[in-house]
Amino acid sequence: MNKENNKKAWILDIIIILFSTIGTIWEIWENGWGMLHYYTVDSNIFITICCFLDIFWQRSSQKKKERAIWIKNLKYMATCCMMLTFFVVVFILAPIGGVTGLIQILTERGLLFHHTLCPIAAIISYYRVDCKQFKLKKYMTYIGMVPTVFYAIVVLTLNIKKKIYGPYPFLYVYEQELWVSVMWILVILGLAYAIGWVLWKGCYLLQKNELECYYF
User: Does 216 score more than 50 pLDDT?
Assistant: First the structure.
């Protein structure tokens, strides 16, 4: 990893950490530890951990040319989670409250950091730094779904056992027909896969164009 990319990675990692940490503290301060039930909060914490690991690896590793593959995969998964959060908020949750609800859910207090700023910083980091070093493999599209599948299994199980309620409307398993719950699971997992594929494909096209420009 050259010095320029190393510097960009550091700056973007720190920005993501700041945005995510501010949002998480704000949400927990206002709403308590129950906020940890939310995919959004968990995703922000996940990407914060990934960025800390990335910074630590860059400082401690003697191999400065390229980051470890597990670091890349973790950040890819975290980026997929952040984009899933953004799209679920914009296209599923926000329409319930109309235009006013959309503005509030994207700009209000801690939500500004979790729903807007952190996803934007994550996608910039992915395409400006991470993507340029990925050795692209198709399996990455499935890796990106792992955190979402894990979250779905845990939260659905807790809802079925009545340990928690929701926290999202489509997780109210006792207030909707079974087929509705199944439909929502398929929609969310399908969206998670689509996001992973788009990120992977975008990375492939970016690398291909850079390679063609280089040879030209």
Answer: no
